């Protein structure tokens, strides 16, 4: 299996961490999005990373599908619980974490436009989504060791990747002071070898 990824994509990081946590061997191929020779479009018509290229050359996307696929590749402990209620809880945490990443990326892309083409209203709307999302997660994680059922799961991985990405793009917002419960959770997650090995590189 080969993973097409960029080093600072929070969605690709989620996949890499799942593979590391489950001791699954992935061949990593870093790509440049939008480059003429980028292999991404060949496997994903949306042109986005991550894409998991299976041994039969089928491309799997997006990150939510890939992590579920990887989770079924090993017997025993699962990052997405099989119990229906717990599963919904886990994927709901993931949906919010991914949504915060979506809004963070939207701000970054808007701010990369020439200043006379940027919309302040759009930027503020997206930043509000980030702040609202972080506030809810900060409340929900309060006093808990892990996001769901006192067990490390995909929810913790998604939240950790999102926080790493918010830290990369919005360090100046002081999120660690504003959301202390999330900050504590992030400190714990950041000690895991899978998180250490996949720290995003500013670009
Ligand atoms: N929902 C998707 C989001 C993937 C995504 O937006 N990836 C970004 C990189 S962080 C990308 O490839 N952007 C290129 C584009 O939108 O054309 C997932 O979970 O995989």
Helix and strand arrangement:
Layout: E1 2-5, H1 10-21, E2 27-30, H2 40-43, E3 51-53, E4 59-60, H3 63-71, H4 84-111, H5 120-140, H6 154-169, H7 175-178, H8 180-190, H9 193-196
Parallel strand pairs: 1-2
Antiparallel strand pairs: 1-3, 3-4
Helix pairs in contact: 1-3, 1-6, 4-5, 4-6, 6-8
Bound molecules: glutathione (GSH).
Residues 6, 9, 11, 33, 47-50, 62-64, 98 line the site of glutathione.
Largest sheet: 4 strands, mixed
- Approximate shape: globular
According to DSSP, the number of beta strands is: 4
Q: Any ligands, ions or cofactors bound here, and which?
A: glutathione
Strand order of the largest sheet: 2-1-3-4
Question: What is the residue-averaged pLDDT?
Answer: 96
Helix content: 40-55%
Question: Helical element count?
Answer: 9
Which band does the percent of strand residues land in? 5-15%
Termini separation comes to 27 Å
Class by SSE composition: alpha+beta
Radius of gyration: 17 Å
Low-confidence stretches: none
Order of helices and strands: EHEHEEHHHHHHH
Please give a quick description of this structure.
The chain has 203 residues and is of the alpha+beta class. Helix content is 54%, strand content 6%.
Description:
The two termini are 27 Å apart. With 203 residues, the chain is of the alpha+beta class. Strands 2-1-3-4 form a four-stranded mixed sheet. The chain is built from nine helices and four strands. It is globular. It binds glutathione. Glutathione is lined by residues 6, 9, 11, 33, 47-50, 62-64, 98.
């Amino acid at each position: 299996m080969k993973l097409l990824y960029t080093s600072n994509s929070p969605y690709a990081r989620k996949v890499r961490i799942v593979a590391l946590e489950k001791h699954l061997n992935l061949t990593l191929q870093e790509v440049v999005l939008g480059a003429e020779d980028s292999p991404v479009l060949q496997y994903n018509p949306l042109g986005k990373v991550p894409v998991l290229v299976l041994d039969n050359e089928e491309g799997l996307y997006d990150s939510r599908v890939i992590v579920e696929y990887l989770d079924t590749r090993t017997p025993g402990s699962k990052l997405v619980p099989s119990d229906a209620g717990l599963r919904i809880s886990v994927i709901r945490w993931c949906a919010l974490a991914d949504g915060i990443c979506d809004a963070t990326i939207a701000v970054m892309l808007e701010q990369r436009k020439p200043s006379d083409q940027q919309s302040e209203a759009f930027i503020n709307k997206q930043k509000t989504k980030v702040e609202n999302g972080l506030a809810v997660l900060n409340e929900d994680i309060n006093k808990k060791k892990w996001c769901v059922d006192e067990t490390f799961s995909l929810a913790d991985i998604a939240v950790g990747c999102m926080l790493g990405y918010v830290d990369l793009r919005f360090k100046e917002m002081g999120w660690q002071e504003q959301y202390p419960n999330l900050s504590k959770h992030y400190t714990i997650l950041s000690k895991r070898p899978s998180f250490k090995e996949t720290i995003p590189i500013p670009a």
